[in-house]
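Morning F.,

Quick status update on the modeling queue. The single chain you submitted on Monday has been processed. Sequence for confirmation:
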Amino acid sequence: MARDRRLDLQGLSETALRAATKLGVDDAVALAAKSSERMVRFANNSVTVSKTVDETELTVYIAKEGRRAIASTSNPSEGSVRSFVLDLFSSLKGLQRTDYAHLPERGSRFRASGESYDRKIVGAGGELADFARMAIDSSLKAGAKRSAGIVSADVVEYSILASNGTSGVDRRASIELNIRSFADGDASGHGLSCSATLSGFRPAEAGERAGEDARRMVNAIQPEPGEYRVLMSPTVASNLIGSVSNSASAFAVEAGLSYLAERVGRKVASESVTVIDHGTVSGCLGGRSFDDEGMKTGTTRIIERGELKTYLHNLTTAKRWKTSTTGNAGIVSPHPWNIEVMPGDSSFDEMVKEMKHGIVLTSNWYTRFKNYRTGEFSTVPRDGAFLVEGGNLARPLKGMRVSDDLLRLFSSVGLLSRERSWIHWWEVDTPTLCPWLLADGVRITRAYD
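Structure tokens below.
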């Protein structure tokens, strides 16, 4: 019996497209991705785990006579790919006909540009433990007693082929570190560094921030509930900006899951706020030169000086909205690739002095929505949080929750910092280049009533 041949990235796309074409589909896209993640975890100031995770995934989209289907597989063998495509085609029979946009008659060709692909990251696996040690030592020196976290270097390669002749390859590399440090009791701080280049990676600085905040958080108190001026770090602001960008998906609007519905051309934030999506941009941690439909990605100004300019579209949502795709497919749901929040002209110290009385937040988690349609959410600050009195950091805070809505919060933004940081971690799915952000009238409640 002949052995089932394992396919390389290009072979996966070719085999899937060939199988779909033989079945007589009207449209087909085969998108293959191969990722390699080298990871080091550490706890109690020591490296505990070092491993490499290699994954290959093939996503196939087919359409025939008004019916469409899309699915993914992680089995890279030739026979399995053919069977997978046949099963996907068979599933069309049970689906309803829908009005969708066909792929363009003429396809495009894409080449990997080399942008955001630092070969030094590709070969940095042996250095990850050293980076972890740098962060731990810096944290201890800054006042922490113990630290835990993860360092990872990720390399992803993509291949796309479509029935209209579209073909392309792309690749990305990134490195990131998350460290959480503790002083006495539950006094904690969080540090983060992520970069598309090894030269831009700052593990020692991330460790120092985590250690300093942990030391400052000793003897934290719970603030009185009420409305405060709140200065959000790039980490916190990126988490909330991610929700704004996801709400700009035309699919979210159609599904009734967006507070931005019926707001194109209207103010949805203060004039200080400009939010841009990039398929690729210098220094970006994610994205591609082509989207899932083989359309060219680009730069889309979602919010400009507070005004909502457009939704994010794929071919089908663009057809329904009588506009053009923005190159953000997701075949089912358009999505952002890399978010950029334009900077302001203030320093951190200037922003603290300006707020006079308020709260500084450096990290958050558990962002949840009470109502997607109105943008009502809550999120729990953790790690470094500080009360500001008289324009100075006065004392550490704990046990609170931010309860607000996105439209009100971003409409109250005044100052933004000149300094920006790339943010990507488990609370920020879409890589985001973001400044510090000062908002007024933010509602603070108790974390647990």
